[in-house]
Every structure is written in C-alpha cells, then in structure tokens.
Amino acid sequence: MSNVSHVGHDMAGHPDAPEMSDRYARVMGGRDVALVDAPLFLVGLYCAVSPWILHFTTSQSALVTHNLVMGIAIAVLGLGFTAMPRRMYGLSWAICAMGAWMIISPWVVGSSPDTGVILNNVIIGGLTALLGLVCAGASMKMSRGGRS
Predict the structure, then answer these.
(1) Secondary structure in 3-state letters for 63-102
(2) ∠ CA 123-127-133, rounded to 5°
(3) Rounded to an integer, what distance in angstroms lies between the CA atom of residue 54 and that of residue 105?
(4) What DSSP assignment string belongs to the chain?
(5) Is 82 buried (19+), middle (13-18) or exposed (0-12) by CB count in 10 A?
(6) pLDDT by 10s per residue, the chain, length 148
(7) Which pLDDT score, from 0 to 100, does residue 145 have?
(8) Nearest Cα to 55, choosing from 131, 125, 117?
(9) Under a CB-based contact definition with an 8 Å cutoff, are residues 119 and 41 in contact?
(10) Which pLDDT score, from 0 to 100, does residue 136 have?
(11) For residue 129, what pLDDT is reported?
(12) What is the C-alpha separation between 46 and 77, in angstroms, rounded?
C-alpha cells in the first residue's frame, strides 16, 4: 500500500513552487492596495444610493443628484483599481480630494441640510479620503521601490 500521508512535506520542495510563485507575483502585479479597491467600490455604491436609503430625496434634491454622481465616480475608481491597479495609482490623490469634497458638500450643494444628511456625507467623505490616503501611500511606496 502507498503512503498517502503528507506529514513532513511542504510546498518549498515542490518542483513547480518557483514557477507558481512567479506567476502569483505577475498576476498580482505589485498590488499593495488589493484590500482597498473593494471597500472603495462599496463606499461609492452606498454614496450613490444613500439619498434613497436615508429618504432625503424630496428635501435635498440637489444633493440627491450630487451623491448619485459622486457615488458612481467613486465606485468606478474602485473598479479601476481592481482592473488596472498600476495605472490607477496616479488617481489616489483625486480620491482624497473627492473625500474632502464629500465632507463639505452638504453645506455647499445642499440647502440647510439636517443632521442625518450631514453625518451621512461626512462619514462617506471620511472613508473615501482614508481609502484614498492608503492608495496614495501605497503609490508612493511603490514609486520609491521602483527607483532603487
């Protein structure tokens, strides 16, 4: 009978281990922000539908359109980081700017917004800016690593 136990065996001794490791590195393409693109996409989706979730469609019609457009833009950037991360690193600071804009937008775009609307946009903006900073930090780390 053959010994089918795998005790004492590890992948380091496998003949295809170096090839699999190289392929994994190629597929990931140096993606340092692999955990940021999905949350960014979800924040964008929530931003787009938040006027209907919080029911401020009748009282803040300008903010409804604003949040829909900004949410779609944030979600598209999140998808961009998933599809082509190396090309999207340059837009990291734009995500930070969009987050800052979302924070101040209730007072600029809206007309006497209530606390729920303000809190909603401040949380969305804060999360967007934070995720943008993570992307920007990864971008700077990657550019420093590329020059060495």
Answers:
(1) HHHHHHHHHHHHHHHHHHHHHCHHHHHHHHHHHHHHHHHH
(2) 145
(3) 16
(4) ------TT--GGG-TTHHHHHHHHHHHHTT-TTTTTHHHHHHHHHHHHHHHHHTT-TTT-HHHHHHHHHHHHHHHHHHHHHHH-HHHHGGGHHHHHHHHHHHHHHHHHTSSS--HHHHHHHHHHHHHHHHHHHHHHHHHHHHHHHHH-
(5) middle
(6) 556 555 555 666 777 777 777 766 665 555 555 678 889 999 999 999 999 999 888 888 999 999 999 999 999 999 988 888 777 777 888 999 999 999 999 999 988 899 999 999 999 999 999 999 988 887 777 666 654 4
(7) 61
(8) 117
(9) no
(10) 84
(11) 96
(12) 14
Token pair, residue 39, equals 């949350």
Distance in angstroms (rounded) separating the CA atoms of residues 109 and 69: 13
